[in-house]
């Protein structure tokens, strides 16, 4: 009998806790002082952390990257001096380092869309900045597997060429003669994941030079910076960086079909200056114009926009 | 029987640690940015299957070239012609479908080879029957419209789990 009472009490307590977790973002009810509450007619107070549900994307309990800024590291793999295509060049290196440099994408209205994502202790800051870069002269040849990509990151860290940083995103950026054998150009243009490297939870991403397959991975070959490879990579790198910040361990933010925030807006740009195919752009960071896909804002019902609080567009 | 206080706290702690919203996704190895072509042809193939679900022949025929034909291993060398295949498709009771592991390769600006695994559940003799097919479609662009000229189809077994190139559920299947 007493065992049954204990069991009942435990189940009730558990249900109460679970209910408290799932209803924290329900309607905003204010006390009346009369022993019951009523729904407020004013805006609810800003939740300290953005575990906000009901905007087309769901939180699954994992951490976000709360760094302010989130650090970015580049590993230029292959030949980025005079590779087989014109974009395998230091011009591309300069453009992409400026994108993630001072006055770049970090802290922009675009990147601030990511501040609508959080976990139970922190929000994504919306600030992201490149710390340092290194090169890798085909240590695994021109055919890279997924495990080869991880090995490239591991080597850069273990050799001291890049620091070990759990608040970092390591981009492996391959020149156009490198084939990522698991489906670059036919299935994907880039990806992100995590791995335990040197005993730490390291987040890393692969993005290849899309001049290898313009019809698959570039929106336009006449691009705003006159470098279709760099402009194509900028779009994919923005996508991967915002997904990594909001879902670094692949267990935080994604929707019921498994799509992360940037997936929900992939290849959707909103209004542009100039026509697609003629150097169109929709963002200006620093001294450069860019054509970069929108990101999913986890607020106002959810939608793709070009900057936090902006207009939602469907294409 | 006394239940130790520590055990109660451990139990409550485990309740509090329950995820707030358990989604269906198993932790995958990586999350990809699909190519433009995969994004485009995912929509087209899903539209094709939705047309079958809705018995919408007018929409379905828009995806098929005039000389569309379906090739299967049995019997090899004898493709199913367009009209016969349409008749079969319209008679099918397609409950649900899922497109997985899509890859798309442009042969040139007006020809794309698309491959994927189609998992579908159809009603057969009043019972649901689930089957996986590996499909290769040859898409050709004509007057700004994409149509399939040839479909190569083979039943497969033992394929499961999310893979790169998976197409997200439409919510209609």
Main attributes of the structure:
heterodimer; A: 315 residues; alpha/beta; five-stranded mixed β-sheet; B: 173 residues; alpha+beta; Nuclear Transport Factor 2, Chain: A; six-stranded mixed β-sheet; 7 strands; disordered N terminus
Task: Describe the protein's architecture and organization.
The complex is a heterodimer of chains A (315) and B (173). Chain A is of the alpha/beta class. Chain A has one domain. Helix content of chain A is 21%, strand content 22%. In chain A, the strands form six sheets. In chain A, strands 5-4-7-10-9 form a five-stranded mixed beta sheet. In chain A, 47% of the residues are buried. About 13% of the residues of chain A have low confidence. In chain B, a hairpin with a 2-residue loop joins β4 and β5. Chain B has a six-stranded mixed beta sheet. The termini of chain B are far apart. The N terminus and C terminus of chain B are likely disordered. β9 of chain A pairs antiparallel with β1 of chain B.
Helix tally of chain B equals: 4
Low-confidence stretches of chain A: 7-46
Q: Per CATH, what is the topology of chain B?
A: Nuclear Transport Factor 2, Chain: A
**What is the strand arrangement across the widest sheet of chain B?**
3-2-7-6-5-4
- The strand count of chain B comes to 7
C-alpha Rg of chain B (nearest Å): 22 Å
E-strand count of chain A? 15
Order of helices and strands of chain B: HEHHEEHEEEE
Instruction: Briefly note the structural class of the backbone of chain B.
Output: alpha+beta
Total number of domains of chain A:
1
Oligomer: heterodimer
Order of helices and strands of chain A: HEEEEHEEHEEEEHHEEEEE
The order of strands across the largest sheet of chain A is 5-4-7-10-9
């Amino acid at each position: 009998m007493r065992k049954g009472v204990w069991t009942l009490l435990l189940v009730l307590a558990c249900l109460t806790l679970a209910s408290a977790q799932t209803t924290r973002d329900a309607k905003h009810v204010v006390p009346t002082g009369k022993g019951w509450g009523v729904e407020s007619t004013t805006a609810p107070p800003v939740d300290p952390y953005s575990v906000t549900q009901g905007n087309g994307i769901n939180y699954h309990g994992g951490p976000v990257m709360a760094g302010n800024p989130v650090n970015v590291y580049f590993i230029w793999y292959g030949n980025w001096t005079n590779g087989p295509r014109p974009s395998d060049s230091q011009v591309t290196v300069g453009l992409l380092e400026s994108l993630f440099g001072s006055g770049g994408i970090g802290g922009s209205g675009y990147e601030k869309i990511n501040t609508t994502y959080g976990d139970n202790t922190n929000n994504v800051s919306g600030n992201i900045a490149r710390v340092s870069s290194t090169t890798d002269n085909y240590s695994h040849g021109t055919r890279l597997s997924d495990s080869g990509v991880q090995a490239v990151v591991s080597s850069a860290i273990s050799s001291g060429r890049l620091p070990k940083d759990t608040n970092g995103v390591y981009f492996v950026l391959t020149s156009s003669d490198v084939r990522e054998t698991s489906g670059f150009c036919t299935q994907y243009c880039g990806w992100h994941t995590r791995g335990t490297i040197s005993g730490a939870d390291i987040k890393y991403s692969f993005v290849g030079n899309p001049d290898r397959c313009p019809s698959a991975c570039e929106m336009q070959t006449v691009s705003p910076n006159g470098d279709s490879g760099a402009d194509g990579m900028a779009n994919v790198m923005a996508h991967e960086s915002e997904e990594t910040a909001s879902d670094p361990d692949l267990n935080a933010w994604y929707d019921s079909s498994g799509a992360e925030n940037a997936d929900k807006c992939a290849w959707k740009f909103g209004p542009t200056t100039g026509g697609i195919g003629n150097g169109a752009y929709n963002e200006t960071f620093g001294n450069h114009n860019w054509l970069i896909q929108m990101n999913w804002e986890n607020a106002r019902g959810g939608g793709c926009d070009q900057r936090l609080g902006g207009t939602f567009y469907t294409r | 029987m006394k239940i130790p206080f520590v055990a109660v706290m451990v139990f409550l702690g485990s309740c509090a640690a329950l995820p707030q919203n358990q989604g269906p996704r198993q932790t995958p190895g990586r999350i990809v940015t699909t190519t433009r072509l995969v994004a485009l042809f995912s929509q087209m193939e899903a539209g094709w299957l939705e047309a079958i679900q809705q018995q919408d022949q007018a929409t379905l025929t828009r995806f098929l070239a005039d000389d569309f034909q379906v090739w299967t291993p049995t019997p090899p060398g004898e493709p199913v012609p367009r009209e016969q295949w349409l008749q079969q498709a319209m008679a099918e009771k397609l409950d649900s479908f899922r497109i997985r592991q899509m890859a798309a390769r442009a042969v040139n600006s007006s020809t794309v080879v698309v491959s994927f695994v189609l998992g579908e559940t159809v009603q057969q003799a009043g019972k649901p029957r689930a089957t996986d097919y590996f499909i290769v479609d040859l898409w050709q662009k004509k007057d700004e419209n994409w149509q399939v000229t040839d479909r190569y189809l083979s039943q497969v077994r033992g394929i499961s789990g999310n893979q790169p190139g998976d197409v997200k559920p439409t919510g209609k299947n």
